[in-house]
Design goal:
A hairpin with a 3-residue loop joins β4 (80-90) and β5 (94-103). The protein has helices at 30-47, 52-58, 132-144; strands spanning 10-11, 15-16, 60-71, 80-90, 94-103, 109-121, 126-127. The protein has 3 helices and 7 strands. The N and C termini lie far apart (62 Å).
Length: 166
C-alpha cells in the first residue's frame, strides 16, 4: 500500500542531545549530528518500506553515496531537537534529500544535511533499481512535496572563493 504524505517536509520524532556526545569544545561533536540526521532518515525510510525487515526479506538495502553537512549553530547536552526531511529528487536507483536539524522548542536552525542514497542489491552489493512498491512510495513522497520550494541551502559545495586581486 502506498504511503500518504503531508505537503510539507517530514518531521522526525523529538530527540535529545545525549551528554556523552559533547566534545572537548563543550558542544555536540560533529559525528553525532550525523547520528541525529541518520536516525531521522531511518524513520522516513521505514515509512517508505525500507525498514530493518527490508534487508532480511528482500536482500536489498540503501547506502549513503554522498553527504554534505553544514554546522550553523551549536547544540548542547539535553537540548531537544527535531529533523525535517525533504525529498529533492529521485530516479530508479537513487534518492536525493535535504534535512534540517532544529531546536525542537525554539525552532532555530542548527545544521543542514544533504544526502544521496543508493538502492543496493545485497546479493551482489551493487546499485540496483528500487522495487516497484518502494518506487511508488518514493513517488508519493515526492509528489506530496512537489509544491515546496527547493531548499535554499541545497546544492552547496565546499570552496574558498578566490578574491579578485586585480
Amino acid at each position: 500500500m502506498t504511503e500518504i504524505w503531508a505537503e510539507k517536509p517530514v518531521e522526525s520524532e523529538v530527540m535529545t542531545v545525549n551528554g556523552d556526545w559533547i566534545d572537548y569544545n563543550g558542544h555536540l561533536n560533529m559525528a553525532y549530528y550525523n547520528v541525529l540526521f541518520d536516525t531521522a532518515v531511518d524513520q522516513v525510510f521505514e515509512r517508505l518500506g525500507l525498514g530493518p525487515d527490508y534487508v532480511t526479506n528482500r536482500n536489498a538495502s540503501f547506502f549513503t553515496g554522498e553527504v554534505h553537512v553544514c554546522y550553523l549553530r551549536e547544540l548542547s547536552a539535553g537540548m531537544p531537537v527535531i529533523v525535517t526531511l525533504q525529498l529533492v529528487d529521485f530516479d530508479s536507483k537513487r534518492a536525493h534529500f535535504y534535512q534540517e536539524l532544529r531546536h525542537a522548542e525554539e525552532g532555530w536552525l542548527s545544521a543542514t544535511s544533504e544526502q544521496m542514497s543508493l538502492h543496493v542489491d545485497m546479493n551482489v552489493r551493487k546499485v540496483g533499481p528500487w522495487p516497484q512498491d518502494i518506487l511508488s512510495n518514493i513517488e508519493s513522497l515526492f509528489n506530496a512535496q512537489a509544491s515546496l520550494p527547493r531548499p535554499e541551502r541545497a546544492g552547496r559545495h565546499i570552496e574558498i572563493p578566490k578574491k579578485n586581486t586585480s
